[in-house]
Amino acid sequence: MKILLVFDFDNTIIDDNSDTWIVQCAPEKKLPNELQDSYKKGFWTEFMGRVFKYLGEEGVREDEMKRTMTSMPFTPGMVELLNFIRKNKDKFDCIIISDSNSVFIDWVLEATNFHDVFDKVFTNPAAFDGSGHLTVENYHAHSCNRCPKNLCKNVVLVEFVDKQLQQGVNYTQIVYIGDGGNDLCPITFLKKNDVAMPRKGYTLQKTLSRMSQNLEPMESCVVVWSSGVEIISHLQILIKE
What we know:
Elements: E1 3-7, H1 18-21, H2 33-36, H3 44-57, H4 62-69, H5 78-87, E2 92-101, H6 102-111, E3 120-124, E4 126-128, E5 134-136, H7 153-166, E6 173-178, H8 184-189, E7 195-198, H9 203-213, E8 221-222, H10 228-240
Parallel strand pairs: 1-2, 1-6, 2-3, 6-7, 7-8
Antiparallel strand pairs: 4-5
Helix pairs in contact: 5-10
Pfam family, one: Put_Phosphatase
Keywords: Hydrolase, Magnesium, Metal-binding
Organism: Myotis myotis
């Protein structure tokens, strides 16, 4: 009987947003206004496709993007947390559900040797095409009207838990660690025994706090964190129970 840990990536594992961090590769480290203004709400992946195309046309190569991406800092206490999980893999399964992309997440996990901590990564698939430009696709299509059209994290989580159940893996509880607005949907799926862990001062925590003031019911318990070390303390309590 294991506990399932679900992580977001941007502003949770790493202390920034990988999609905006990559702009450091652009000439003068910024995007042209017309490209910047082309973003439409809910269509972030399409926007990033245009950003990657622009970087490619400006001659930004894969190795430069990789160097930039792997210079991104981890969130405080996150390295300690991931090492703690590695030491206790008999008690935890661990997945990432992220609106970043497979290339960026692979680079970071590979550079920091944390690939083995995660059993599965769900994110927008990306690859370099024949002309060396990074391309990205939507993770899936879904009918949830709360989420951006490329990714409903709740659909991903429910499908994963169901698939595991079919293979005889039943989690005693789910701990969801995230920061953003798109982490709200999966958190509403959590049950009484589960734990929602929003990062302090970020959108998810502010939204959950507003919901509790409005007495909107949340089944799971909510534990706010600022450092991965606080998450370790909470996980230590859970595995002792």
